[in-house]
Amino acid sequence: MNVPGTARGDGVGPGAAAGPSGPDGPGDALSPRGHPHDSDTPTNITGPARSGGAGLGHGGDAALLGFARALRAAGVAVSAERVLAFLRAVDVLRAGSRADVYWAGRVTLCGDRDDLERYERVFAAYFGTDGAPARPAPAAAPPRPRLVLREAPAGSRAGPPGDEPQGPPTATLASSAEVLRHRDVAELDPAERAQVRRLLAAFALRGQPRRTARRRPARRGAVDPHRTVRELLRLGGEPALLRRHARAERPRRVVLLVDVSGSMGPYADALLRFAHAAARGRRTEVFTIGTRLTRVTRELSHRDPDLAMAAVAEAVPDWRGGTRLGELLREFLDRWGQRGMARGAVVVLLSDGWERGDPHLLAVQMRRLHRLAHRVIWSNPRKARPGYAPLAAGMAAALPSVDDFVEGHSLAALERLAAVVQGAGPDAAGEVPGLSERS
Fold first, then answer.
1. 23-43 pLDDT, tens per residue?
2. Which pLDDT belongs to residue 171?
3. Residue 272's pLDDT band (boundaries 50, 70, 90)?
4. Residue 376: pLDDT band with limits 50, 70, 90
5. Is 281 or 141 the better-scoring residue by pLDDT?
6. Would you tell me the crossing angle of helices 57-73 and 80-93 to the nearest 10 degrees?
7. Alpha helices in 252-374 (DSSP H)
């Protein structure tokens, strides 16, 4: 099957081996239900599908776009063209099983081998895991009938006995994950918190790229005289193509200051897990702030998120205490920031802005930080509440020195925060232009 805009086939297509968290086999059919609250509604699967659409319907399209956004947050370069190819591939396959969705996304959304591990993690967290890894469908498989969903009378069964999907319905799980992305973390039950933790474990955070003094070989750019002369000597003076080079890019350092005071208690775990995902990068530093300043970069270096959280719990002595933002920010700048950690970096403060100390001191230190850092971002979980205004003394004192003031209450808000850190605007929502609604 040729799908326009698909990714390269360098070991990423159906011929590549599936990871440990691949989907179920072809027998694991997609649920016809598109919303988690409709799980008790019986359905029949008959008749032709909607024109030009997949069996998932419009609710399924929203779930697939949410999956693409989760991949982007995990560091996969999911462009609008790849997402469009993914949706078209699902349409062609008619999305009858989780294996179809898995392979459609793997072929179209993964650009190289480095994306495969992230894809496996996000797919498992977003759609759930159940059963054995998927296998490519046989080349001579019979054509799949086009399906459409309609409600059946109460008490009736959907299809003949034995045809029920084995394992969790993919469409229901996807819709549940999409709804969960926008829920306030403080209002989640234990099961929903566990799912959010799995999705946060797949995050990736890189600072805004900057050009360095070093140069790398490139197809376009200035002529590289040394490599060009060496190529001419290698060919014995015969004509040769000019070798070119361009400035290399590297991500800026990211510094995260996570508030673990009492007022931030409902959000501290999710924010620290977000910081753990960010700390997998070499140029990321993490500190906790409350009544003390604690550097927890080493504790968050554990690959396992639960082990990292346990190490942080032992290292941080001021859980659910007060907040002294001004004094701790001054300590950070004196010990680390002024010496180079904050110079040219993207500094992110994750706090509600409640200050027990002198707001004037916080304002002075924020101006000092703003002069050092490339960009200062403040993520406040309270910002999403209706009628919120930055009237707290600490928040009001800090805002004049903040470049971007964003929310931080939900998974979707943290995805937007990651986009802002990477250089997008403060209104970046992770949407794919022109694909929010499909005709």
1. 444 434 333 333 333 333 333
2. 52
3. very high
4. very high
5. 281
6. 140
7. 265-278, 305-315, 325-332, 359-372
Q: Rounded to the nearest 5°, which phi and psi values hold at 306?
A: -65, -40
pLDDT beyond 50 at 51: no
Residue bearing the bigger pLDDT, 175 or 287: 287
Question: What mean pLDDT do residues 61-79 have?
Answer: 82
Instruction: Answer whether 69's CB lies under 8 Å from 430's CB.
Output: yes
pTM, two decimal places: 0.62
Q: HSE (CB half, 13 Å, CA atoms) of 358?
A: 6
Q: Which residues contact 390 (CB under 8 A, 6 or more apart)?
A: 353, 380, 383, 396, 399, 405
Angle between helices 80-93 and 98-109 (to 10 degrees): 150
Q: What's 336's DSSP letter? A: I
Length of the chain: 439
- Tokens representing 134? 């998927």
Under the banding of pLDDT at 50, 70 and 90, the label for residue 48 is very low
What is the Cα–Cα distance from 422 to 424, expressed in whole angstroms?
6
Amino acid occupying residue 302: H
Give the C-alpha separation, 78 to 81, whole Å: 8
pLDDT in tens, 347-370: 999 999 888 888 999 999 999 999
Do 245 and 215 touch, CB atoms closer than 8 A?
A: yes
The two tokens of residue 56 are 């998932």
Please choose, from the candidates 312, 314, 292, 289, the residue with its C-alpha nearest in 3D space to the C-alpha of residue 302. 312
Can you tell me the distance from the alpha carbon of 160 to that of 136, in angstroms, rounded to the nearest whole number? Answer: 26
Contact by Cβ (8 Å): 415, 201 = no
Contact of 50 with 165, CB cutoff 8 Å: no
Write down the residue that tokens 């799995």 correspond to. Answer: 198
Reduced to 3 states (helix: H, G, I; strand: E, B; else coil), residue 103 is helix
Q: DSSP secondary-structure letter at 29?
A: B
Q: What does the H/E/C string look like for 160-227? A: CCCCCCCCCCHHHHHHHHHHHHCCCHHHCCHHHHHHHHHHHHCCCCCCCEEEEEEEEEECCCEECHHH
3-state helix, strand, coil in the chain (%, to 5): 40, 15, 45
User: CA-CA distance, 246 to 321, in Å (whole number)?
Assistant: 50
Of 91-95, 283-287, 370-374, 400-404, the least confident: 91-95
CA–CA separation, 47 and 35 (whole Å): 21
Q: Which pair of structure tokens corresponds to residue 345? A: 């970096």
Q: Which two tokens stand for residue 156?
A: 């009736």
CA 251, CA 28: separation in Å to the nearest integer? 41
